[in-house]
Write a structure and sequence with these properties.
With 44 residues, the chain is mainly alpha-helical. It contains 1 helix and no strands.
Length: 44
Amino acid sequence: MYGMNQRIRKYDNNNIFKLRYKTDIHIRRDALIYQFEKKKQELS
């Protein structure tokens, strides 16, 4: 029983880490797109 709980907890931590990593990528990508659009507006 105890070992099972440990396994589940480890799995949850991995999921949280993956979620955080994915959101980081999305935020970074959005920031890049925003900067790109801003540059385009400045040039035109």
